[in-house]
Amino acid sequence: MSDALPEGVKHLVPIVPVEKAPKITEQAKEELKSVGMMDEKGKLKIKGVSPKMLKRMKQEQVACPVLKQDIAFVQCYVCRNFHSRISGQVYCKGEPL
Questions:
Q1: 81 φ/ψ angles, rounded to the nearest 5 degrees
Q2: In which domain of life is the source organism classified (predicted)?
Q3: What CA–CA distances, in Å, run from 48 to 37, 41, 51, 53, 93?
Q4: What are the strands, taking DSSP E only, across the chain?
């Protein structure tokens, strides 16, 4: 299957829907604020993503192959290893952070 991955992508990680939204780390929150995707009150505002899709993204998590733990999808989305999201899966570059 690794032959089908785009160039520079090492991992294909499934996105798992969860009942309770996973917490976003303080580091990820700072990253979101610095790039203008989160306001000072902590509300996500991602350009080009509808409120409905954003709500769904908050209820998802991924098993991060780099951090070796389950993280919120929104945290994965802002990671520099994030390549793309296709059909319920994330293409991850897998480089050390």
A1: -85, -10
A2: Archaea
A3: 11, 20, 10, 10, 23
A4: 11-17, 60-64, 69-72, 82-86, 89-92
Tokens of 89: 């899966």
Task: Report pLDDT for 3.
Answer: 55
> Phi, psi at residue 53, to the nearest 5°?
-70, -40
Question: Which residues, at least 6 apart from 12, have a Cβ–Cβ distance to it below 8 Å?
Answer: 1, 5, 89, 90, 91, 92
How high is the pLDDT of residue 1?
Answer: 47
Q: Is the pLDDT of residue 36 over 50?
A: yes
DSSP string, 67-94: TTEEEEHHHHHHSTTEEEEETTEEEE--
Q: What would the pLDDT profile of 83-92 be if each residue is shown by its tens digit?
A: 999 999 999 9
The two tokens of residue 15 are 């996105």
Instruction: Please state the length of the chain.
Output: 97
